Every structure is written in structure tokens, then in C-alpha cells.
Amino acid sequence: MKPYVLFLYLSSILLSVIMAFVYRADLKRRGLFILFPYLLLVFIQELCVFFYIREVPKANTSIIYNFYRIITVVTFSILFYQIPFRPIVKKIILLLLFLYLVLIIITFLFLQSIYSQSNYPATAGGLIITGYAIYFLFFYFSLDNAEQEKQWQPMILIAIGLATFYPVVNISNAFHKHLLSYNATIFGMRLYNLVPQVMSIFMYCCFARAFYLCKRKN
């Protein structure tokens, strides 16, 4: 990864962590506080991976990202479960989380090692989170209560960030073999690696802006 792309990537995560910390009381009030420890964990993880790869250039970090994806799906399942959806939707969220965890167990117990990269759980997790985000957008724009609209307004940016990031990254993952075989690059950077980083920067900036919108207005 080019140094300036890495800098922007880590800076976007750090910005979202700082904004979450600054407005942590408002995040609690709006049911979004779980994103603060999650983003802090992501930032620490990415820093550790960066320094680890510097020391061991050919290091295998697959196990780290396999656990990261599990934590991500669980985190956003909890986040969207707190939104006042209809009871049937909440049951679907729990069912999807359960099925995803079953898929993870089957994949890493019987199909492949947790030390290897697997696109299937990553794709499944991305589809689940995208589904949550899209449903929230339909939910929000069908509200006819001004107080509820104000309460969940910051979630619009979070949902947009998620609904943009995961479909693009899933498409990139689906064609990763072709991108690698053709050595597709932009400005000297591998397209397969660049796409997730650029989309991550966009998503974390959406998060940071959403946290700012959470602040209590006088």
C-alpha cells in the first residue's frame, strides 16, 4: 500500500475514533455507543498489523481479519437490533446472526483453516450488513414522527457508508482472482488492495460525520 493511502486510511479510522470519544455521551443517548469500542479495536488492530508486516513482510494476517469480520458482523447486528424495527425484523436480525455464526463454525472447523483467507464468510457478512443498512434507510424514510427522525438521523450516514462499502468490496472480492492474474493497477497500486482502502476511507469519514451529528444541540 502506498504511504499516503495508508496514512489516509489510518487517519480516517482515527478520526472516527476521536469523534466517537468526544461525543460518547450523545452516542449512548442514541444507542450508537457500541461503535466506539469497535472502532478503537479496528484502529489498534490496523496499527498492529502495519508494524507486524514491517517486521515480517510475508506474515500471514488472515486469522486476524477472520476474527475481525466476525466481530464486525456481531457489532452491527447488535447496533441495528437496537433500532425500533418491527419485532419480525428483530427476529430476522437474530436469525441472520445465528446462521452467519454457524457458517463460520462449519467453514473453519471442516472446510479450511482459520489461518487462511476465506471469501465466503466475508461475502456473507457483507451481504448481511448491507441488508441491515438498506432496511434502515427504508425504515427511516417511512417515519412520520419528528422526534424519531431526529433521534436516528445520524444513522443515515452510517447506513450509507455501510451500504456503499460492502457491495463494492464484495464485488472486488468476487473478481479478486481476475484482478490478481491481470495484475490490475491504478497509479502503481494493485486494484484488489486499493478498492477496500478507498472505500474504507469513505465509510469511516461517514462514521465521523455521523458522530458529529449526534451532538446535543443547545
Please outline the helices and strands:
Elements: H1 3-22, H2 24-29, H3 35-55, H4 62-81, H5 87-111, H6 119-141, H7 146-152, H8 154-174, H9 176-181, E1 185-186, E2 189-190, H10 191-213
Antiparallel strand pairs: 1-2
Helix pairs in contact: 1-3, 1-10, 3-4, 4-5, 4-6, 5-6, 6-8, 8-10
Describe the structure.
- The chain is mainly α.
- The chain has one domain (3-213): Rhopdopsin 7-helix transmembrane proteins (Up-down Bundle).
- The protein has helices at residues 3-22, 24-29, 35-55, 62-81, 87-111, 119-141, 146-152, 154-174, 176-181, 191-213, and strands at residues 185-186, 189-190.
- It has a two-stranded antiparallel ribbon.
- Strand 1 and strand 2 form a beta hairpin.
- Helix 1 packs parallel to helix 10 (191-213), helix 3 packs antiparallel against helix 4 and helix 8 (154-174) runs antiparallel to helix 10.
- The longest helix has 25 residues, at 87-111.
- The chain is globular and about 55 Å long.
- The model has no long low-confidence stretch (mean pLDDT 87).
